Amino acid sequence: MSFAVAIDGPAAAGKGTISRAVAAHFGFAHLDTGLLYRAVAHAVLHGADPVEAARTLNAKVLENADLRRPDVAQAASKVAVIAEVRAALVDFQRAFARRAAGAVLDGRDIGTVICPDAGAKLYVTASAEVRARRRYDELIGRGIETAYEQVLDDVRGRDARDMERAEAPLRPAEDAVIIDTSEMSVEAAVAAAIAAIEARVSVARP
Length: 206
Prior knowledge:
5 strands; single chain; alpha/beta; Rossmann fold
């Protein structure tokens, strides 16, 4: 069964965790589309042209642990505003979404641009303060020294760039199920996502 699940939302809202859990539950393939932009950003930080980096992207580079670094994340939101970069990565994402066994894609424009006809659409969000605290705890846990106030500033800055860009701004699809994880446990958020998707999968089954 070809069935695509689009999961969008701002940074550190929990969409990655939810997406991986959902993919495992349904047996679907999973793509963190943000890694595509991080891969381009990583190349740019090493002197590459962003558009050329996007056009020649090799899926193997998505396994590079350096893509999770904070500086790469910040650079990713900057290259993501470049229309030519986004266009170069569209085909890669849409091809993934057409996988016969089903696919889960998480990002910022999956339900609105990449897969507007996705079988299920979710928008995972949380307050900026909660998301900054999660990201701060994650960075400290990885041994990266930082200040919570700096992380909060970074989160707000990234939100502004993502939501205000002219090309594919971050926003919920009109038919997306909104899941606010601010006061939810991981288990509760995953359960809510699975329930919402299961309802759509049931409708899609012949």
